Amino acid sequence: MRLRAPEFGIPPAWPRASYAWYVVAMLVLAYSFGILDRAVIGLLVQPIKADLGVTDSQIGLLQGLAFAICYTTFGLAFGLVTDWTNRRWLMTVAVLVWSASTIACGFAGGFAMLFLARIGVGLGEACTTGRSRSSSRGCRAWSWHCCSC
């Protein structure tokens, strides 16, 4: 939705407060799942090692490097893309990439597949986080607070 300058006393086209809080709630939910997704691999270290036969060094790469490469590198780029594109579609694509990558993590048969899937998770989360930071005009402080807990 594009905002327009008030003309002849007509207020700008702001969304209803209920819709704005709905969007904030959905972003908080997505951010919460992101935090859970980052933490769950740490809880499943022993089952992953037993199932896939990975070493401690490979677990370290899965927990850190695979996720951090995309999350940090593409986080800034997606922040810029968020300003230039339709935010709804960008968020939809990000959640789909993130979800597909999370599913791929569950079906991974070895280290390489799990590593690539974790990169996809980082890519989807980088876009989701950038989107949540620039979501709400007018109550950006509340949005930052809700998405930074």
Report on the structure:
- This protein is mainly alpha-helical and 149 residues long.
- It contains six helices and no strands.
- Helix 1 runs antiparallel to helix 5 and helix 4 packs antiparallel against helix 5.
- It is elongated and about 55 Å long.
- The protein starts with 16 loop residues before the first helix and ends with a helix.
- The model has no long low-confidence stretch (mean pLDDT 79).
Summary, kept brief:
This protein has helices at 17-43, 45-52, 56-84, 87-107, 111-133, 140-146. It is mainly α and 149 residues long.
**What is the overall pLDDT average?**
79
CA radius of gyration is 18 Å
List low-confidence stretches: none
The coarse silhouette is: elongated
| Number of helices, counting only DSSP H or I runs of 4 residues or more | 6
Give the distance, in angstroms, between the N- and C-terminal Cα atoms: 27 Å
Report the count of strand segments.
0
Largest sheet: none
SSE pattern, N- to C-terminal? HHHHHH
Structural topology:
Blueprint: H1 17-43, H2 45-52, H3 56-84, H4 87-107, H5 111-133, H6 140-146
Helix pairs in contact: 1-5, 3-5, 4-5
